[in-house]
Structures are given as structure tokens and as C-alpha cells.
Amino acid sequence: MTNYLDQLNEAQREAVLQKNGAMIIIAGAGSGKTRVLTYRIAHLMKQGVDSFSILALTFTNKAAREMKDRIGKMVGHSEAKNLWMGTFHSVFARILRSEADKLGFPKNFTIYDTQDSVRLISAIIKEMQLDKDRYKPKQVLSRISSFKNSLITVKAYYNNSELQETDKMANRPRIGEIYQQYVDRCFKAGAMDFDDLLLRTNELLTRFPDVLAKYQDRFRYILVDEYQDTNHSQYLIVRALADKFQNICVVGDDSQSIYAFRGANIQNILNFQRDYEDVKIFKLEQNYRSTSNIVEAANSVIDKNKTKLDKEIWTDNSKGEKIKVMRTLSEGEEGRFVANSIFENKMNHQLKNRSFAVLYRTNAQSRAIEDALRKKDIAYRIYGGLSFYQRKEIKDVLSYLRLIVNPNDEEALKRVINYPARGVGQTTIEKLSVAANHYKKSIFEILENIDKVDLKINSGTKLKLQNFVTMIKSFQIEAQIKNAFEVADFVIKQTKIIKELEKDSAPEAVSKVENVQELLNGIKDFIDEQNEEPEDGTERKTDTSLAFFLEDVALATDLDNEKDKNEDSVSLMTIHLAKGLEFEYVYIVGLEENLFPSAMSMNTRSELEEERRLFYVALTRAEKQAYLSYAHSRYRWGKLVDCEPSRFLEEIDDKYIDFMTPKVSPNINKFINEDIFGDVPQDKVRFKKPVQRAIIKPKSKQKPKTVPKTIQISAPKNLKKVSNLNQNLFDSNITVGNVVQHSKFGKGEVVSLEGVGSNKKAEINFDSVGNKKLLLQFAKLKIL
Ligand code: ATP
Ligand code: MG
């Protein structure tokens, strides 16, 4: 390969060549921060730095894999494999694995995912007989999570009257007790949740100076991507590890800090200079990702934020098309707009699906987009929903596997103790749980000693429980001689899980069976990957044990389990998940007040600024073209609500924007799209007044291949529809006091109005029949 240093600009090269010391690269989106980290690692290795002594922390495991792959190409794959690279959670889970006993945890501790944590908290709330509407398990978990990420232990919580006061004010005075219970129960189950992976690492590094020294010596070079989104716990880990050699390089962009709600602290960037000696600061100012229109539009938006570091970003790239803004009537129409536009761009520019991404503020918005893409037969993939491993049927199988590795795992045990059904009822499980708490043992330990404790469980049930214990123990014996795949296969057969799933005749049941099979395939792949011969013939330690597989699964996000790297689908994800990624064409949907910016983040300047940064992140994902859309009404929480365009649309300087919406009534657009033309893109539709005839005329700039140039609509059937619609249009303008004509009731006066959109009703005082409430959609009123 050509000299890799030639693939960098001067500022980037300088940052790569600066070998030792503390350095921070603060730069705008798309300026090559991640590229610098990647090249820096390759360069260190070329300079003879041992790959085992480099630690790189990334935002997703996928990012780590891509980085490793790139480095592998530059310095050889087998060397690159030795790098310590991954998310904070995965790297420190690995370290905790070998040090857990120091903290009183088993080495094969379980990692609870969010689902497990929520279930445990729900159980605690129930056992404490608290009101679950006041103590909502998810909210309680996020409160506990915020304590952990600020290193506030239970003891520290009780020493902090301010925190306790806050919970009292929020009408949740017993948070401390739940926190205590939760921590105890996790400990007893030999389980750590995601936050524990950081909290316990901190504990390990502070309580055991020899352990700290060991890892300080191991990680001579530390690099952190997306530093602006590290929380306090992560910050402390990095600081402790880097303290000895101070070879630390962090990169970030304060304008892309979007995780404050999860405890990320932008101060970490600002304080960096204070924390290390002789910090070198690098700035990258050239954007290589996007057209100049996009770069400048993004700059014009982020300029509105008061809190930000001073930095410029410019690009040599061509101007490109303006950002297109689309106004739509409903979320359904928005979905169709996106699908049509993707289809058209694919045709016009011969593109693959993977060139496109649709980004939204909340996961709920994906449904309308999905519907429209499906109708157009465009393959898509949603990121950030329930991951494969969190599906019920998969979690059930995994729970058996987790029990084999760690029988104290309470959440796993509760899932499968009566699945497939073996006659163990809820009351029995509750009795076991109470006993476990009383004796300070795990449920499994109680089960093992079921004869010695008086639980008032009848002998029939007792026998069933003993059989369950025997079964799990027999699995454990198998696990000693078999690899992960063989064990899983054995467990699935012995427990008859597939048969259980096949009993269900619902159509989804078939896919559940397939999913379980897919899980087996996944385990097989995992083993094959582990056994892969390094290209240069060197020996590599392989680990195909169940525990290792389970750890991999626990830390996998669904951004990670791409089945096939060459998969060709449109990416659908929240903006939060899109950080660091890039796509040629990006659609940002739902640009409406209360949705984006979110209704929950408009109370303070700092919240609003975070939403604006989120918009900046979204916009700067686009390489060639960005589309923004909003709807006039949308279903939210089951209700149709009227929406206003987002303030962010106004904040982009006009000169970078092109409004696509034709200047006709929104109702007519809806009609055109749905009823007459199906898939004709809206911007190709113009109306001649009066509304009896539609002419489809492409805008001259765009070169549609799929749409005929002009179509006259003259069919009487359509004419009729148009005139009905005309009538409806009229209705939506009705106000109190209007005198109206109804086909059956005659003349009347509008007394009041209620509801919105298709639910809008008017109360009318008719001369003939008195007061009547009518749904405007159907009333066909004429204003006189
Ligand atoms: P973000 O802030 O979104 O994380 P970033 O600063 O990490 O962005 P990169 O992802 O590293 O930016 O780079 C953006 C794009 O520009 C990538 O496609 C990268 O390959 C390309 N790029 C970066 N530097 C150069 C360069 N010197 N020459 C050519 N392409 C470059
Ligand atoms: Mg990056």
C-alpha cells in the first residue's frame, strides 16, 4: 500500500506522528478524528509499540471492529487482533472477568442486560409492596443508574441529604431501600449490570493499587474516541489508567455531545488540559465527508448554541444540492415521501440501499417509514430496537446457558424454572425468593437444600424442583466436555423448547423456532471465528467456552450483529445511534416542535442546546444529500395531534435549503398520493385551479425516469373524488359562528368545535333539528 501518512492532511499527520504525551483533538464532524485514531494506532505499531499495550475505547463494538480491520490491513491482521479495543463496557468486562474474585464476584459472573435489571427492580418493588405507578421500574432503574455513573454507592446515597430530598420531593422516598436491595440481589446472584461494569472497575482500581499498577503498566498507550460522551465513571477509569505514562490521546467534538441524559459530562473535554501535564491540542478543520452546502448549513445551526468551543469547519468538497425540506400531512405521508424519494434516487443514480439512512428522534417513528418501505419493496434494517438476543425465545434458551455457567443467576433461573411448564407455580417461586432473601443465599442454593428448609412446599412440587436442579447439574457436566455449540444443542433437545414452541399455532411461532435455530448457527459461527487460524500462522489462544460466548452476547448491541457485512438495506435508527457513522443520503424525519426538539428537553437552555447538537449530529451524517421532513399531524401516544414545524428548520440559513412542497392544499396532496397516483413523488405534482384537473409535471431540474411527463386526469370517477375533497377542505376551515348548510339538516350555526384532524367535530345549532354534533370528516358542510 502507498505510504499511509500520505492519506492524511497536515494537521492530521501531525497528530498521528505525535507519539508520546497527553493530547486532545477537538474537531468538528467529519474532519477525520476517527481516522486519526486509527492511523495513530497503526503508526504506533509500525514504530514497534507492542499491540498488547495499546488500549482503544470506541463508542460501539462495531466501530472497534471496523477500526481493527482497517489497522489490520495496514499492519497485518494477526497483530491487530491483539489490540485491546472495544467499548468501555466490553473492555472492562474482560478485565473484571479475571479480577472479579477480588470484589467477591465469581469469575463467571453474569451480565444483566436492561431487561434483567428492570425485571429484578419490578420484583423488588412488588416484594416491598410499593405502588408500581409511583415507583415505575424503568424510572427507578434510570435513577439508580445515574447514581452508579456518578459513583454514588448506597452508603454515599444515605450520606447525601440532597439526593434523598430530591427523591422525597418526587414522591419516591424509598429509592434508597430499593437501591440497597438491588445491589444486594445482584451481588448474591453473581451478576453485574451495565453500570456495574464501570462502577466495579473503578472500585477495583481504587481499592487494589497492585491491580491498578498492573493495568497502568499494560496499557502504555490509551486512545479514546467520542470523548465528549464519556460519563464520570468512564472518565475516572481513563484518568487512573493513564496516570502513570500519560500517553493518552482523546478525540471528540463538544458540538456532538448528546448523552448528557445518560450522565455524559462535557466538562471532561474542558478539563482535559487540567488533568494531564503538558497537553498538546490539535485542531482539525477540514471536513471530508459532506458537501459544502451540508457543512455550512450545519455550521449555521450549531452557531446558535452559546456553550461551545471555538472551532471552524470548512470543506473543499463540491457545493452539492441544497438540503431538501418536505412538508407532509401525516406520518403516513411522510413515510411515503421517504420511500418514494429513496426509490427515485436509487433509480436516478444507480445506488444501493445501503447508501441511505433514515434518522429519527424516537424509535416509535420507525413504523410509518417501515410500512412505506415495505410497500415499495425496499429492504431496510432497524437498529436499536429489541436486539436478537433479547427476544423471548432466545432469552429463554440463553437463560438455561447462563444457569449452567452461573447457577446463582436469579433472573435466568426465574425465567426457566417453569419453562417449558413443569408445574412450578408463581407462589412456589415467591416462597423460594423469600427464603433466599432470608438466608442470604441464591434461589439455586435454596433449591439444592430444599429438604433442609421448611418452605411449606408439597412433596410433589419438591420433586419437580429437585429434578430441575438435577437437570441443570447434568448440563453443567456436559459443559465441561463440550463446546458452546454442543452444549446449547444438547440443552435445546433436553428441555424440549422447540417442541414447546411448535405447540403454538400462531404464525409468529414459526419464526420463533427459526430464531432458536439461528441462535445455534450464531454459536457455531462464534466458535469458528474463535478457531480461525491467524493468517501468519502464529498460534492464538482460543476460547470457545460458553461463558465467553455469553459475555459476547451480553455486550452485543444490535448495531453489532450485522448478519452479513454485504447486506444491502436502508438503515433506520435514532440519531443517537448514528453518531460517528456516515451515509450518502440521509433523511431526517419528524422535524416538529415537541418531537425534535423533544417536549421533554425544552425547559432549559442547556437541554435545548443538547437537542440542537443532536440535530447537528444528524445533519453531519450526510455525505451527498440531506432531506428534512415534518408532518402536520401525527399519532402520538395513541392520539392524533397537530404539529408545528421544528424551530431547527428556521435556524438553518435559507440559502442552503430548498422547500420541495408544492404550493397546494395539504389535503389535496394527500388525496393525490394515496388515491390517484399511488407512488408518484409529490414534488412532481402540480395543480391547476380550480381543483378539477390535475397535471403532473416534473420540475425541470430533476430528471425523473420513472414518471411520465404530463398526465391529464379526466376520468369522471376521479373528478367526483376531487369535488368531495374540495368539500372537505372547506370543512377544515370552519370556525365558531359560521353559518353552514348540511345536505340533510339544512341551515345551522356552528356553536363549538372540538378534536383535531379526522376527529374534528362541530356542534351545530340547526334551524330544523336543534343542536347536533357532527364529525366534520363526514358532515360535508358548506359555509354560507
Ligand atoms: P465524526 O465527528 O462524525 O465522528 P470524524 O471526525 O471522526 O467524524 P472520520 O469519520 O474520521 O471523521 O472521517 C470522515 C470521512 O472523511 C471518512 O469517510 C474518512 O475516511 C474521510 N477522511 C478523513 N480524513 C481524510 C483525508 N485526509 N483524506 C481523505 N478522506 C479523509
Ligand atoms: Mg468519528
Automatic annotation (TrEMBL):
This is DNA 3'-5' helicase. One of its GO terms (molecular function) is 3'-5' DNA helicase activity. It is an enzyme of class 5 (isomerase). Belongs to the helicase family. UvrD subfamily. Keywords: ATP-binding, DNA-binding, Helicase, Hydrolase, Isomerase, Nucleotide-binding. GO terms for cellular component: cytosol; DNA helicase complex. Residues 292-580 form the UvrD-like helicase C-terminal domain. One of its GO terms (biological process) is recombinational repair. ATP binds at A27, G28, A29, G30, S31, G32, K33, T34. It catalyses: Couples ATP hydrolysis with the unwinding of duplex DNA by translocating in the 3'-5' direction; ATP + H2O = ADP + phosphate + H(+). Residues 6-291 form the UvrD-like helicase ATP-binding domain. Its EC number is 5.6.2.4.
